[in-house]
Amino acid sequence: MALGLRRGTVDAISEEHEELIRLVVDGVSTVAYPRLTGPVRVGDDVIVNVQARELELGSGGFDVLYVNLTHGLGGEANDGTHVMTLPYTPLQSATRHVEEDGTLAESLDGMRIVCCSLHSQLAPAAAGLAGRVAYVQLGGGALPISLSDTVRALKRRGLLDVAVAASPCLDGDVQAVTPASALAWCAAQGYRAVICSIGPGIVGTGSLLGHGGLAAAVAANTAAALGGDPILAVRVSEADRRERHNGVSHHVRAILNLCVADVRIAWPRGLDAPDWLEPREEVDVDGWYEACTGLPLSHMGRGLEEDPSFFVSAFAAGKLAGDWLS
């Protein structure tokens, strides 16, 4: 299928950050990534990608600016940069990568890595850790870190220090070629805890293996191979009407089946667990609600009150990582 591109005019700009602009093009909500496509002004002549919105995808209720014909055609490659993000695609861009800027750690030396299968687990996991934390985004959902309002909110709250984009993800504070080098860079920077997840949204097909949540297995296996200590944030819900995601999601079983090394399974003390979820470590989650209050918490449109099990489970993973560090 060819790219679904349309030409239009910028009507308004509703929100503007260094890394993300929300705007309106011919009456339609649109997002732009100015570090990739340049600045945007009202009245600009632009081309937008409309496919996700026209397909009515769950996380695609907006268009994405593809190129700004008025202000976005004069970009130049950064001096000394030779590694591409999204290589050999129409949006390839030369970006400085961490591998080019210094020595990476040879071992993670016990660094705790919280492995999440959904971006909506990031905020409660960070609340559970409540320390100096790096975030590594893996492929499986939205690729640009700059799309994440959660990352911006966690930085403002002091719960997140740096966001690393591991290819094919992009547009983070720093860029890494692989999940392994992303984690090794975090270790070299002195981080003792990292949260890995996919970006907002998830690639899903309803099948056991065809979903972005398997990025948690990639994170766990990579972490263990490099001498880290992976901890799985279990996806659990008491409000999801889909049988495969009600209770502990079938995604969790798929992730654990693909983990070739030991991974800690964090579980909130007092919450009923299926017998097959072993060996799990029960975590004291007292105070979790207060710690999460005020954070951008939403899973399939549900918040703390509608689906508390989902958020407390991710909090437990962060808490387990933090307890081991203390």
Overview of the molecule:
This protein has helices spanning 34-37, 51-54, 122-129, 149-156, 179-188, 215-225, 250-258, 288-292, 308-325, and strands at 5-16, 21-25, 28-32, 45-49, 63-68, 84-85, 93-94, 112-115, 134-138, 162-166, 174-176, 193-198, 229-233, 236-237, 247-248, 264-268, 280-283. The protein has 2 domains: 5-68, OB fold (Dihydrolipoamide Acetyltransferase, E2P) (Beta Barrel); 98-325. α3 (122-129) runs parallel beside α9. Strands 11-10-9-12-8-13-16-17 form an 8-stranded parallel sheet, sandwiched between helices. It has a 5-stranded mixed barrel with strand order 1-2-3-5-4. A two-stranded antiparallel ribbon has the order 6-7. With 326 residues, the protein is α/β, with parallel strands linked by helices.
Using brief descriptors, characterize the structure shown.
326 residues; alpha/beta; OB fold (Dihydrolipoamide Acetyltransferase, E2P); 2 domains; eight-stranded parallel beta sheet; globular
How would you summarize the topology of this molecule?
Blueprint: E1 5-16, E2 21-25, E3 28-32, H1 34-37, E4 45-49, H2 51-54, E5 63-68, E6 84-85, E7 93-94, E8 112-115, H3 122-129, E9 134-138, H4 149-156, E10 162-166, E11 174-176, H5 179-188, E12 193-198, H6 215-225, E13 229-233, E14 236-237, E15 247-248, H7 250-258, E16 264-268, E17 280-283, H8 288-292, H9 308-325
Parallel strand pairs: 3-5, 8-12, 8-13, 9-10, 9-12, 10-11, 13-16, 16-17
Antiparallel strand pairs: 1-2, 1-4, 2-3, 4-5, 6-7, 14-15
Helix pairs in contact: 3-9
